[in-house]
Specification:
The protein is α+β, with helices and mostly antiparallel strands. The protein has ten helices and 19 strands. Strands 9, 12, 15, 16, 17, 18 and 19 form a seven-stranded mixed beta sheet that branches. It has a four-stranded antiparallel beta sheet with strand order 1-8-6-3, with no helix packed on it. The longest helix has 18 residues. About 10% of the residues have low confidence.
Length: 409
């Protein structure tokens, strides 16, 4: 018997441990080299672990185990050269013709990935009703999301309970029940929790507020949207306009774009804006680099690309690194006002909120305008109160007169 040991590989500089979230192959299955055998959940992403040899898979670790880098995950018996199922015994070479490799090789067919399974369960969609587009017919996150969307759009689902966000498990709770459940916190959720507590405890965080009249931006989008789409092939959204406004203000006020490193202050001559994206496994904040130099359409394309990768678990560790400032939009979920938490080691984060028609006084007259509250949370150790207020006012002025962004004034 010749055994190849499968160990947790080095994933990234900051990652020392992963969780084996799910086996993709059964114990005893015949696997081929480079075929995914399990999935690891790291602090930042879910990663597939490919087989390093061809042969019979032998489990060592269990689902849910926390494994250090270099820990033994499984062994592969390379002396087995034909496919066998987990219930069959190894047979000698002369009887190869009696074995059906298809039975083990098609195990992935109709089988959802961990994230896809979670989405299907919460959307109350049976995996058997979904056609997988992944390798060997495996159900991917995108397949699951489409299946849930199709269900909610169909007339049959109109009288059923609404599908909750992926981060909120959908359970039927019977009144009077006193059931208590315990679930292991995911590695990403533990990391998010740790970082948020660290930001609260280790920074002198303060939040300042303002509001912006969205009339000019709405008029701009209404007037030029069709031409923008015709030229660039993507819609002009609010996020790109906010990102460009923040980038201009950050270039004018480098303190807000800086960060602390011990007793040193690090200043940046560029603006990399992290965009908060909600995914089934938690919030991620991948950055868009050099926002100060790229166009509105470039920002929109980059946001779309990062969002799709994030929700499909395809973000790389390099795409998660960096960022000098963060924007989060709670308005997409209906938030009217909030105090966002700083994304360490950055020093500030801008919170966008829902746009609501409200009465405001303009030139002595009360008029109805689409208004949005803005919140800037900042580290008071590096950013003074006057600096934070001035920055937010600059952003407000740029948004209320967006032509100044296009003219560079």
């Amino acid at each position: 018997m010749s055994l190849v040991e499968m160990k947790v590989p080095t994933i990234g500089e900051s990652i020392s441990e992963v969780t084996l979230s799910q086996w993709l192959k059964k114990d005893g299955d015949f696997v081929k080299v480079d075929e995914a055998i399990c999935e690891f959940e790291s602090d930042k992403a879910t990663l597939e672990f490919p087989a390093e040899a061809t042969g019979k898979l032998i489990y060592v670790a269990k689902e849910g185990d926390d494994l250090a880098i270099g820990a033994l995950v499984a062994r592969i018996d390379t002396s087995v050269t034909v496919g066998i199922s987990s219930k069959e015994t190894i047979v000698s070479a002369p009887k190869v013709e009696t074995i059906k490799p298809q039975e083990s090789q098609n195990y992935a067919t109709g089988h959802p990935s961990p994230a896809a399974g979670k989405i299907l369960r919460e959307g109350d969609v049976a995996p058997s009703s979904v056609i997988g587009s992944g390798k060997d017919g495996r159900i991917t996150k995108e397949d699951a999301q489409k299946a849930v969307e199709n269900k909610t759009e169909s007339p049959v689902s109109q009288n059923s309970s609404p599908v909750l966000p992926a981060s909120t498990p959908q359970r039927v709770i019977v009144a009077g029940s006193r059931e208590v459940r315990t679930e292991k916190m995911s590695r990403m959720r533990k990391t998010i929790a740790s970082r948020l507590v660290s930001a609260k405890n280790n920074t002198a965080m303060l939040t300042t507020f303002n509001e912006v009249d969205m009339t000019a931006i709405n008029d701009l989008r209404k007037k030029y949207q069709d031409r923008f789409v015709l030229k660039h092939g993507i819609k002009l959204g609010y996020m790109s306009i906010f990102a460009k406004a923040c980038a201009k203000a950050l270039m004018d006020m480098p303190d807000v774009n800086a960060m602390l490193d011990g007793n040193d202050m690090i200043y940046h001559d560029f603006v990399d804006i992290s965009i908060a994206i909600s995914t089934p496994t938690g919030l991620v904040v991948p950055p868009i680099q050099n926002v100060e130099t790229i166009g509105f359409h470039d920002v929109e394309f980059r946001i779309k690309e990062l969002a799709e990768k994030a929700r499909n678990g395809k973000l790389t560790l390099d795409e998660m690194k960096g960022g000098t400032f963060t924007i989060t939009n709670g308005g997409t979920f209906g938030s009217l006002l909030s105090t966002p938490i700083i994304n360490e080691p950055q020093s500030a984060i801008l919170g966008m909120h829902a746009i609501k028609d409200r009465p405001v006084a303009i030139d002595g007259q009360v008029v109805i305008r689409p208004m949005m509250y803005l919140a800037l949370s900042y580290d008071h150790r590096i950013i003074d109160g006057s600096t934070s207020v001035t920055f937010l006012v600059k952003v407000k002025e740029l948004l209320e007169d967006p032509l100044t962004l296009l003219m560079g004034i």
